[in-house]
Amino acid sequence: MPELPEVETVRRTLTELIVGKTIEEIDIFWPRIIKKPDDTHQFKTILIGQSIRSIERRGKFILFQLDDFVLVSHLRMEGRYGLYKNGEERTKHTHVVFHFTDNSQLWYQDVRKFGTMHVFKKGEEFLNEPLTGLGVEPFSEEFQLPILLHSFSNTTRNVKAVLLDQRTVVGLGNIYVDEALFRSGILPERKASSLTDLEVTLLHEKIKGTLQEAVDMGGSSVKSYVNGQGEMGMFQQRLDVYGRKGQPCNHCGNEIEKKVVSGRGTHYCPSCQK
């Protein structure tokens, strides 16, 4: 699943590609992607004629800011957007096509068909699911050390489970939780409330640093992820533990291990992480 760095990279590339374009027509080939309104005809009626004013991000969600509405899109496991010219042959996994008045098209492609789209009147998007109840943005002023200290001290869960919970900090997923914990020297299954203030301080720093580094490198292309221009990310070349089971640790040389923690395949170094 694309995480904050990948979604932010998609947001940036789409901003360059489609801001200012006006929707002329919409083709929907897999109606289940459209969650609100649940009538695809109404979905089209609402959006046709609207121009894209800006593109924002909230956690792992992309927010297309239109004239009067906001289209909230989640890529889920393998969703992607791409800009194409009119007349190009639609691929098998293209499920929604937005036709623009300048003869270009925005395709939403999704091999697993898990992606979602919600439309709200402007100002109502944060009052309804799926954006209600989300935690703080890691790059915002609100993401201060007390946020983590409070979240860790008031739970019996392990540290990985807390960080994966989008009600705590948004945008973190399996890749960047594993990487931030490695950089902090903390085992993923460690009870969150057992962390010292010094450990939480370091983790807070490494979360922000890891995410920023990944954004700067366009995200991680460990499976099918590409940005809005079809380009791969490059942060996978700097991954220390994720996806490296059985390989030597870049820091100590011992073997990277993998186990299931909080229902997720989790990579760690048993020597570097205590």
TrEMBL record:
<comment type="function">
    <text>Involved in base excision repair of DNA damaged by oxidation or by mutagenic agents. Acts as DNA glycosylase that recognizes and removes damaged bases. Has a preference for oxidized purines, such as 7,8-dihydro-8-oxoguanine (8-oxoG). Has AP (apurinic/apyrimidinic) lyase activity and introduces nicks in the DNA strand. Cleaves the DNA backbone by beta-delta elimination to generate a single-strand break at the site of the removed base with both 3'- and 5'-phosphates.</text>
</comment>
<dbReference type="InterPro" id="IPR015886">
    <property type="entry name" value="H2TH_FPG"/>
</dbReference>
<feature type="domain" description="Formamidopyrimidine-DNA glycosylase catalytic">
    <location>
        <begin position="2"/>
        <end position="115"/>
    </location>
</feature>
<keyword id="KW-0238">DNA-binding</keyword>
<feature type="binding site">
    <location>
        <position position="93"/>
    </location>
    <ligand>
        <name>DNA</name>
    </ligand>
</feature>
<comment type="similarity">
    <text>Belongs to the FPG family.</text>
</comment>
<feature type="active site" description="Proton donor">
    <location>
        <position position="3"/>
    </location>
</feature>
<dbReference type="Pfam" id="PF06831">
    <property type="entry name" value="H2TH"/>
</dbReference>
<dbReference type="InterPro" id="IPR012319">
    <property type="entry name" value="FPG_cat"/>
</dbReference>
<dbReference type="InterPro" id="IPR020629">
    <property type="entry name" value="FPG_Glyclase"/>
</dbReference>
<dbReference type="GO" id="GO:0003684">
    <property type="term" value="F:damaged DNA binding"/>
</dbReference>
<keyword id="KW-0378">Hydrolase</keyword>
<dbReference type="Pfam" id="PF06827">
    <property type="entry name" value="zf-FPG_IleRS"/>
</dbReference>
<protein>
    <recommendedName>
        <fullName>Formamidopyrimidine-DNA glycosylase</fullName>
        <ecNumber>3.2.2.23</ecNumber>
        <ecNumber>4.2.99.18</ecNumber>
    </recommendedName>
</protein>
<dbReference type="InterPro" id="IPR015887">
    <property type="entry name" value="DNA_glyclase_Znf_dom_DNA_BS"/>
</dbReference>
<dbReference type="InterPro" id="IPR010663">
    <property type="entry name" value="Znf_FPG/IleRS"/>
</dbReference>
<feature type="binding site">
    <location>
        <position position="112"/>
    </location>
    <ligand>
        <name>DNA</name>
    </ligand>
</feature>
<comment type="subunit">
    <text>Monomer.</text>
</comment>
<feature type="active site" description="Proton donor; for beta-elimination activity">
    <location>
        <position position="60"/>
    </location>
</feature>
<keyword id="KW-0863">Zinc-finger</keyword>
<dbReference type="InterPro" id="IPR000214">
    <property type="entry name" value="Znf_DNA_glyclase/AP_lyase"/>
</dbReference>
<feature type="active site" description="Proton donor; for delta-elimination activity">
    <location>
        <position position="264"/>
    </location>
</feature>
<dbReference type="Pfam" id="PF01149">
    <property type="entry name" value="Fapy_DNA_glyco"/>
</dbReference>
<keyword id="KW-0234">DNA repair</keyword>
<keyword id="KW-0326">Glycosidase</keyword>
<feature type="domain" description="FPG-type">
    <location>
        <begin position="240"/>
        <end position="274"/>
    </location>
</feature>
<feature type="active site" description="Schiff-base intermediate with DNA">
    <location>
        <position position="2"/>
    </location>
</feature>
<dbReference type="GO" id="GO:0008270">
    <property type="term" value="F:zinc ion binding"/>
</dbReference>
<dbReference type="GO" id="GO:0006284">
    <property type="term" value="P:base-excision repair"/>
</dbReference>
<keyword id="KW-0227">DNA damage</keyword>
<dbReference type="GO" id="GO:0034039">
    <property type="term" value="F:8-oxo-7,8-dihydroguanine DNA N-glycosylase activity"/>
</dbReference>
<dbReference type="GO" id="GO:0003690">
    <property type="term" value="F:double-stranded DNA binding"/>
</dbReference>
<keyword id="KW-0479">Metal-binding</keyword>
<dbReference type="GO" id="GO:0140078">
    <property type="term" value="F:class I DNA-(apurinic or apyrimidinic site) endonuclease activity"/>
</dbReference>
<dbReference type="InterPro" id="IPR035937">
    <property type="entry name" value="FPG_N"/>
</dbReference>
<dbReference type="InterPro" id="IPR010979">
    <property type="entry name" value="Ribosomal_uS13-like_H2TH"/>
</dbReference>
<keyword id="KW-0456">Lyase</keyword>
<keyword id="KW-0862">Zinc</keyword>
<keyword id="KW-0511">Multifunctional enzyme</keyword>
